[in-house]
Amino acid sequence: MSGITTAAKELRRGAAKRRKAGGELASYEVASQWKLMWWKFKKHKVAVASAIVLGVFYLIAVFANF
Out of 7, 10, 41, 49, which residue is the most buried by the measure of CB atoms under 10 Å away? Predict the structure, then answer.
């Protein structure tokens, strides 16, 4: 079972307990899969650093003289 599916199931289990005072759902309960993945990605510092390094490599490749 993937981590995203597990996370979605965990979010659904206690949805009634995690409702705000006005009865509306918390933002993570109505977020798309992409949004949930982005939030989890931002918490992983090594992944963010690797994405920055990869971005720099792509910029170097675009402007390289071949």
Answer: 7
